[in-house]
Amino acid sequence: MSAMTKLLAQAVEQARELPEEDQDAAAEALFTHIANRDHRYRLGVEQVEEVKRIRARLQSGETQLVTVDEASALWKKCGVQNRESD
User: Do 29 and 61 belong to one domain?
Assistant: First the structure.
């Protein structure tokens, strides 16, 4: 186990001066952070299903992210040669 960082030690020292209720709130916040640190950037079940629906619509051609005209305008703006005009 590694030593506590200076910043965390300072926070703990300041937390010791808080009323008991505030100390408990600070502890709960820290425990929540520790419990969720590996899960912060994971999608929820509903989000995963929405991504799957969007991907299916894109793959089927039902929808597209941009129109051909929009893509061509972006390529032109960026100075990139449009592959269709090669």
Answer: no
pTM: 0.43
Q: At 83, list the tokens.
A: 């592959």
How far apart CA 53 and CA 21 sit, in angstroms, is 46
Contact between 81 and 75 under an 8 Å Cβ cutoff? The reply is yes
The answer as to whether 1 is a domain residue is no
Rounded distance, CA 56 to CA 29, Å? 39
CA distances from 74 to 7, 16, 27, 64, 85 (A): 47, 57, 50, 15, 14
What's the CA gap between 86 and 73, in Å, rounded? 16
**Using CA atoms, how far apart are residues 49 and 38, in angstroms rounded to an integer?**
21
Enclosing domain of residue 74: 45-85
Over residues 5-50, the pLDDT tens digits come to 999 999 999 999 999 999 999 998 898 888 877 766 677 788 889 9
